[in-house]
Structure formats: C-alpha cells, structure tokens
Amino acid sequence: MRKIYALVLVLFVSQYFNDSSAQMLELEKTYEITGKSKKGYLGKVIYDQNTKIYSLIYVTKSTDRKAKFETYTFDKDFNFLNKEEEEIEFEKAKLKFSWFNFKGEQYVVETISVAGNLTGTLVLKKKRITYTYDWFFGGYSKKVELLEKVKPKNDEGNKYFYHTHVDDDVTGDILVVAGLKEKSDPFKHFRDFSLLKFNKDFDLVKESFVKFDHIQSIAVTRSITKVYEGDTDHTGIGGLMMVFAPMGGQGMNKVASPDKNAYTYIRTNENGELIHRAAFTSPASYWKIDEIVSVDGENSVYVFGPAAEGKDKYYNMSVATTKFKAIQLLKIKDGKTEYITSANLDEIESKIKTPPAQKKSPAYEGKKFDIKGYAVGSANDFFIYGQNFDMGDKGIKYRDVIGFHFDSKGILKSQYGVDTKETNAFALANGSPQYLQEGTNGQDVYWILTEIDGVKTDDVSTNHATTRLLIYPRVGKINVSSGTIGDFITLGKIDKKTFYLDNKFPYLPVDEGNALVFFGNDKTGKILWFGKLRLE
Length: 536
Fold this sequence. Notes:
single chain, mainly beta, 35 strands, 52% strand, disordered N terminus
C-alpha cells in the first residue's frame, strides 16, 4: 500500500480502544521547546533507522546572510537527548541541508501560460512569477502576472484550438492538448489532437498526435508528477493521463461514433509522446471521471467517478448532470484494460458499513463528492475516500466522510460512512484531510481523519500575520477480508488540553513496519508531543 503516516498523540491507557478497533496506543511524551524555535518553522524531521533517533530541525532567519538551525534529538521512546544550535550562511546551509530551499527573499521566473480565447484559438502568453519567501512556513508564496501574448501556428498555417494544458513550474515548459482549426473540416479539432511541448521561450520542442475516427470530448486530464531533486516547492510534468469520450448531438450525426460508450484511455511521456492507448466500453455513456491515479509507476492506473446510469446521451450532452445513479472503477495495467465495474446507488446503499458505536449511517447520495485520497492494499483492494459536500450562497459546505472499498476484481465490497465531529466554519469550509495506512498483517487498514478545531493566527512581523489549521486526529480500523470498520478513537487530548498536528509535518517519516508515529504541539506551539500507535 502507498504508505501514508498521520500524526497521533499516544496515551498509555488502552481502555480507550474497544475490541472492534484493536488498536494499541503505546507511548506519549511531551517536550517544551525554546521561545526562539517556536517562532521559526520546522524544516525537517529525520528518523535514523539504525540508531532509532529522531531529529527535529527548526529554522529561523538570523541575519540578512545567515539562518539559525536548532536541532532537537529524541530517542526511540521520545526522550529528549540533545539540542544543537548553529548559524550558517544561506549558500552553505543549502549545501549542508538539501531540503533548505532558500533562493533569496524574492526571485522572479519568466515562463509561459496558455489559454483559449473566445473562439477557442490557442493563445500563449508570457508569464512572470514572483516568489516571496515566508520564514514562518519555510516556503515560497507566488504572485503571477500575465504579459504579452502570441498565437502559435503549425507548419501549414492553421491555428490551434485549445483544449487543456499542464505547466512545469521548474523548467517553465508547458504541455498543451490542442486541435487544428480547419475551415474545410469544422470538427477536425475534436478528432485529431495535437500534443504540443513548448519551452519557456515559446519554442515548439515536440509535437505528437492522437487521432480518432470519430469526434471526442476530453473527459478528464491529469498530469503525472515529476519531482525535481532538491526542489520541494515545485513539481514538473512527467507526462499526461487522459480519457476521451465519444461526442455527438445535433448536427454531428455524420462525424459522431455510433457507440456512445466507446471510451479511450491515453498516457503520454513528458514530451507528449504516446505510451499507452487502451479502448474500453463504459457501462454508462456519461461517466463524470473524478480522478485518475497512477500506482507503482506506470504499471497500474485506476480511473474513478460517478456515472449517469440509464441515460443514453453522448458525454458532451450530459455534462450538466448533478445527480448520479452509479459509480464506476476502471483499472488499466501495463497499458491494457484489466476491468471496469459499475455499482448503482441501490447496491452502494446495501453495502453501507459504519463504526459500531455510531448512530447515523451517512452514505454517498450520488451528488457532490470531494476525493481526499486513495490507496491500494497488498491484496490489490482499492480504497478511495473523501467527503460529501454542498454548494450554497456562502460557498462549499462539507458533510459526511465516505470511503469506497473495492476488491481485487473491482467489485464494490463496502461503503464506509463516518460522522465528523467538528462543525465549525473552518471545518465545514475545508473538509477533513484523510490518510490510510495498511497494517503489518495485510488484513487491516487504518483510516486517519484529521478534524479541524479552528485556526491559529500568529503575528510574525508588524505587517504580516500567518494562520495555521488546528487539527487533531481520529483513527479507525478497516478489516479488509470482512469489509467492516471499527469505532474511531479521538487522539490529541490530555487532561482537557488539546494538542494539534504540525501543518507541515503531520507525521514522522518512520518506517518500522508495525507502528504509526505521530507528532504535534499545543496551541501556543511551545510544547511538542509525540506518540506511537501499534499496528496489528
């Protein structure tokens, strides 16, 4: 399973866990840090697998040329060992600490941006990004300005029709999905697609093609993330994943596919060159794909989303649909369709599982659903989880937490419905960040919900204030074979005092196999707390 750690406060009292959850809190420790450290940011948490020592490195600005690094070390039981302080010039600090991403208080990068004008014509613009360093959070904020524009043309002089694009924030490159606007063939740009790789100087580096016999809508596009070593603030383009759906309607009979359900999955490399192409039949003609996720490199891809079961219209004729009757899951392995399944609302409702002590049975209603994450278990069960939400005059309002559990064949095994505890304005507006972690026996999956208790505003200068979410964890356990879920336990509360997860490091990078190790602090930020949750 993709390993995700969360932050937990661990208590000695195991009676907080009933038999259905069978989770064991082993250890909890607190430690008060210096006043200067709490004004900086936590730059890095390091766990040495050999020595079992944790190192927490806090960073503050010392002078215009130097930063101060305070390193606190703790043993495997979270007992304080030592504190070291050093002031290092910025350039030397970057050599010593690869994660220290300081490039100056402010710097400017000029790249390109892309969009379509009122007629859909592809328009490239120069883009200036100004990055400003935040010494409270330890990263850069950015301001984007669009400058002059250019209309690119191909060798034949035909203008491109803009469909979608992804940016590389590091190199300034851009990968565009476009079509050719041709007067003699008004639908060509929906049938013959060009994938254009531009560099930051507007040079067309590479053009590749994806062609169809019939006109198509792009149902979803996702970029494959490319991580540049030593740059934690920016990511690049490692390629594209797209799903195309047949297009049709009035005036399109001669160019539309007779099969409204004939979808196509496409994967490219970072230059837009085709790697995989897989045709498949969607159970529903309109599939609102919410997410494409790539697992284990390029070997497996999962495509998930609700579908308008029972409708017999082309994709482009159903995009205004807001009520769905089913959910669908597609798995592509090694570029070939392994399965595609569908579960309607009746089946989903019949498979609701809730924590035993929970009175309500929240469920997916076929309406708005925000995906918070996903995971694949060692037995190839697929989990995707998030929250129902509504849109009103005051914006988004998050409601119940929902998880879908599919078996190795893509059949829906269970729907898990969980009530959230916090209903304050910040919790309703942001929703609950969530994580999954598989247990050591491969039969248990731990579901970590982080509840938002509010926000804390810190004045770090006379003209700049920053806020951080006050979040604490709740942990429940899913039994994979039975498809059931135990009661959730609330962590982070001791003697009427609440400890909150660190926003930047809500977990410690520890891989002991049989435990989750968590980290946080009190509302003032002065007292650190640590804990360990044993996995079964």
